[in-house]
Amino acid sequence: MTTQLPGPDLESDARVKAVFDDIRATRKTDFINNMWRWLAFDPALLERTWTEVKEVVGKPSSIDPLTKEMIYVAVSVANNCTYCVHSHTAAARAKGMTEAQYGELLAIIGLAGKTNQLATALQVPVDPVFDASQQGA
Amino acid sequence: MTTQLPGPDLESDARVKAVFDDIRATRKTDFINNMWRWLAFDPALLERTWTEVKEVVGKPSSIDPLTKEMIYVAVSVANNCTYCVHSHTAAARAKGMTEAQYGELLAIIGLAGKTNQLATALQVPVDPVFDASQQGA
Amino acid sequence: MTTQLPGPDLESDARVKAVFDDIRATRKTDFINNMWRWLAFDPALLERTWTEVKEVVGKPSSIDPLTKEMIYVAVSVANNCTYCVHSHTAAARAKGMTEAQYGELLAIIGLAGKTNQLATALQVPVDPVFDASQQGA
Amino acid sequence: MTTQLPGPDLESDARVKAVFDDIRATRKTDFINNMWRWLAFDPALLERTWTEVKEVVGKPSSIDPLTKEMIYVAVSVANNCTYCVHSHTAAARAKGMTEAQYGELLAIIGLAGKTNQLATALQVPVDPVFDASQQGA
Amino acid sequence: MTTQLPGPDLESDARVKAVFDDIRATRKTDFINNMWRWLAFDPALLERTWTEVKEVVGKPSSIDPLTKEMIYVAVSVANNCTYCVHSHTAAARAKGMTEAQYGELLAIIGLAGKTNQLATALQVPVDPVFDASQQGA
Amino acid sequence: MTTQLPGPDLESDARVKAVFDDIRATRKTDFINNMWRWLAFDPALLERTWTEVKEVVGKPSSIDPLTKEMIYVAVSVANNCTYCVHSHTAAARAKGMTEAQYGELLAIIGLAGKTNQLATALQVPVDPVFDASQQGA
């Protein structure tokens, strides 16, 4: 099921072709996953989204690639995005996530799901030591 | 604001005292943050929650302690838990999170928030290659 | 903090006065909590909302009043509505919720928060026996 | 998959028939979409829900019909309701939403998804100028 | 679709077998639903989750078994967990939930969904009488 | 409360100053709201976010400015972002949202909150006519 189908010849649009070419070159594969094909109906949205993914996830930085993917999985689970849970879990595995790490990732996500709800239910006041406005931090 | 206040002498309950003592010993500090004080009205819930936190977050494992806290922050943001965002951001800093890492963590959380909504809006079909039931994985 | 303040003389509007009078009569109290005062700027929205609350929560039915409030608390926690968590926790107490029941309610909400995220993370397939379209149910 | 199937002869219930007849008359079509057929097991819930939809979405008002549907899509995406995303995206198209407008709608939803998470992660304090209680507004 | 498939011989792991045996004995059935089979790849996570479910949902307590399941359904709907909505709706029916109760449960969940969003949109201030920190409660 | 405070002299960073100058020029005001001041610790994140806001919300397009803000409010409510609900409700008013429109906006958000939860609870199957993959659309 989907709300919209990609057209038959997406890359006849020059902007779409440029993004798809960059995805192929960056990832060193011919495979374009559905997310990009579904965004292609709006080339500006496609360009902005790919540029941001490349900048945030793709560039070498202070967080290693596998950790980035595990954080992406965690947010996608909490936001309940079926597509994103599948694609980023696969990406985390492709970047080396072991079964042990996957089990731990789930354990943290599940525990956070629980303590998030407990703190919200009790409306626990934030300790002053955690509040930067009370710390001069 | 809160839905319930902790009583005046929480540690007069032996089970509460045992948990609080273990928190102090494990964390090597006298500070007991509000989450635990607010859970103390139900000693069984307090015990179970602390035991799980100690097991999942506290034990040496295949995910390093800072990464665990950053994942905890990510889930807490997506679940919108004010208390948890504050406490786990503080914990991540205490475990060495730099400003650069904090900025990147936010960038990933924000990007995931965006792509999660785009994929949900378009109801993008999961690529077969991401679906374990089609992979024999 | 709020996005809008109620006007100084809400009951000068006849429709608002009628709803407020009905709230007082139904609840046998002069107290009108903020939710209704904030909705009063749009009398049609106020009327529809109060009518539905009275119908769904107020009428004798197959679910007892305390259980209804506990369900309301549970949804409000999961949806993260600060005002609603406070007001419905107070209402549940007013209807007799004990400390033991409150502790159990939190335990269920917390456990559901955890297992919800685990099932979503793993994208566990629904067992055919739980799917009415496969049961003739 | 579903948790419950509609019975074989829903309109043998007079209240259900009356609602279905009103849906057909209001929308000038014989098509009754699944939402209403699934709600029919509880005629009171069906009646209340249809009455509210007719009042809020169907009546001429200060927000035009297409804008209402686009707002409905936006909330349904953020709340992650698969059925509602499909039905309201289709309804927006039926009311004239162009591809350009759909692309922009997604761009706003996605951007909001991102900035919502950033503001929550940073726990940005509300500027006094945005707070009605500090403005006498 | 799923992110991971259970292995072919889950009970060759002694810890998994012990949990599955306990599920069968506790529930007096040979049926192990998918949730447990999917968690089995991480025996520690499986054990912790089952132990908590048994403790929170399975033990006689101050909230009756049917009410517990209805609360579980309510949280699962608000958290949007497809698997959990199916499994806990089925469990509630198995524990005696009538059609009338199901209709009312949905009515409360739906109404809470609405008033939660209204209170959040208006940022309605919590009445002091609902705030335990202002009540000495 | 906040997890981090902006430094004392944000515009000593040239990239931050450039963004702030552009905000002032674009909005024709000296006022920089907190969101931007809080993002300034990470100039790249600040730049990307402002560029996207300017592109998506600020440019003339197929959706008028007031409608864009109302959609932004709707998503922010559903995602439960306190800061964003305040800032975008204020922005919608600044762009001409009337009290009648605000009431209707809330009515749609509230109704969607309700029907979203009902459709999720019942797991209503998507009608084939709403599914583009069955329509050749």
The CATH homologous superfamily name of the largest domain in chain A equals AhpD-like
Oligomer: homohexamer
| Biggest sheet overview of chain A | none
Distance between the termini of chain A: 49 Å
- Would you report the number of β strands of chain A? 0
Helical region count of chain A? 6
Query: What is Rg of chain A?
Result: 19 Å
Shape field of chain A: elongated
CATH topology of the largest domain in chain A: AhpD-like
Supply the CATH class of the largest domain in chain A.
Mainly Alpha
Explain how this protein is built.
Chains A, B, C, D, E, F: InterPro entries: AhpD-like, AhpD_core, CMD-like. Chains A, B, C, D, E, F: It comes from Hoeflea algicola. The structure is a homohexamer of 137-residue chains. Chain A contains 6 helices and no strands. Chain A is mostly helical. Chain A has 2 domains: 49 residues, AhpD-like (Up-down Bundle), CATH 1.20.1290; 60 residues, AhpD-like (Up-down Bundle), CATH 1.20.1290. In chain A, α1 packs parallel to α3. Helices cover 64% and strands 0% of the residues of chain A. Chains A and B meet through α2, α3, α4, α5 and α6 of A and α2, α3, α4, α5 and α6 of B.
